[in-house]
Design goal:
This protein is an alpha/beta fold. It has 14 helices and ten strands. The strands form two sheets. Strands 3-4-2-7-1-8-9-10 form an eight-stranded mixed beta sheet, sandwiched between helices. A two-stranded antiparallel ribbon has the order 5-6. α4 packs across α7, α9 packs antiparallel against α10 and α11 packs parallel to α13. It starts with 7 loop residues before the first helix and ends with a helix. The N terminus is likely disordered. The structure holds adenosine-5'-diphosphate and magnesium ion.
Length: about 325
């Protein structure tokens, strides 16, 4: 199937059939929450899912009520697994996985390869982390079939995510042959293939996250990375009717705090509507006619859970599934 055959609709109804979903956005916009929810939604459809976390502190395992997975793959729920991808372990594993340990040894001590590593030194951490993630998504087989139906990358925030996802292009602009260049080539092909990869940007209905989401999507687009849905997280939904607010406001001093809270809530709900429109307009402007589909906007409601755990993830998954 060529890129042109995929309608915008087809692309996104099939979101969970991709090999790799990357979730990025400004810090605190809900990347880990959305990653966990996507994994849960896919697992519900019988898919075996691996969540790769790259941030300093593991969050997804915690959302499932499990201890940190660390560098070993651990099961978080039925069909949901996670791993914390860190450069030192990824470096060793990446070598073993892609070059086989014996070959790796020989190669690492070969000057030519050391030179590759040195030239790429500033991006070395990204190279090995991305290599490991892409390997799980595309090259890890179990009895002839992909071990993972889906890999969800809970990616770093904006700038660091761009650095991670563009490392193959940067590397290939410096080095065009050798084993690493060959790997960076297939990884770049995977990352740029909208039938296998989608990059989701998370935002909140607030000015800074919205501006950052729009800029990030433009930068991803420029890098030919396939834009998946834009997730507007923590959307405040209208809760009180005008009549209810008037009644509370008339309730006198006893209810003045409640009246303020209701007003505050409705103000946030209005802001959510306003920023939803800003994002919808930006998506429309970003998808020029004839271009690859740029992904719809998925809204996830603001939740008021006291304990933000599996219960909340279920609700986020439900909202995403509904929006898809
Ligand atoms: N839809 C939501 N409603 C309420 N709180 C949310 C929602 N999504 C995320 N949160 C909370 O917002 C904070 C940041 O979410 P997290 O997923 O850790 O963001 P990120 O991974 O982007 O830093 C967490 O405390 C999380 O519990
Ligand atoms: Mg996070």
């Amino acid at each position: 199937m060529s890129e042109g055959d995929i309608s915008e609709r087809g692309l996104h109804t099939d979101l969970l059939s991709r090999r790799l979903l990357v979730v990025t956005g400004k810090g605190g916009t809900g990347k880990s929450t959305i990653s966990a929810a996507l994994a849960l939604a896919a697992a519900r459809r019988g898919k075996r899912v691996l969540v790769c976390e790259v941030s300093a502190r593991e969050r997804v395992s915690e959302l499932f009520g499990k201890p940190p997975s660390g560098p070993e793959i651990r099961e978080l729920a039925k069909n949901v697994y996670s791993v914390h991808v860190r450069p030192p372990e990824a470096m060793r594993e990446y070598g073993i996985m892609t070059l086989r340990s014996e070959t790796l040894y020989n190669l690492v001590f070969e000057r030519k390869v050391v030179r590759y590593f040195l030239r790429a030194a500033p991006s070395l951490a990204e190279i090995v982390m991305l290599g490991k993630i892409a390997w799980h998504a595309e090259k890890e087989f179990d009895r002839g079939v992909h071990k993972w139906d889906l890999v969800v990358l809970d990616a770093p925030a904006t700038g660091h995510a761009l650095a991670l996802l563009t490392v193959p292009r940067v590397f290939l602009s410096l080095v065009s042959d050798g084993p690493l260049a060959a790997d960076m080539t297939w990884i770049q092909t995977l990352l740029q293939d909208p039938t296998r990869t989608q990059v989701l940007v998370a935002s909140l209905p607030e000015e800074m996250p919205v501006n950052e989401a729009i800029e990030l999507r433009a930068a991803l687009c420029k890098e030919k990375l396939p834009l998946g849905p834009l997730v507007l997280n923590a959307v405040f939904q209208p809760r009180f009717t005008e009549a209810e607010r008037t009644a509370v406001a008339r309730g006198g001093p006893m209810l003045s705090a409640a009246a303020d809270a209701a007003d505050g809530h409705e103000a946030r709900a209005q802001m959510s509507v306003q920023y939803e429109k800003v994002l919808r307009d930006a998506i429309a402007a970003q998808s020029a006619p004839g271009q690859a589909a740029q992904g719809p906007l998925l809204c996830v409601p603001q939740l008021f859970e006291r304990q933000f755990g599996l219960n909340a993830i279920e609700k986020v998954a439900h909202a995403l599934e509904g929006a898809l």
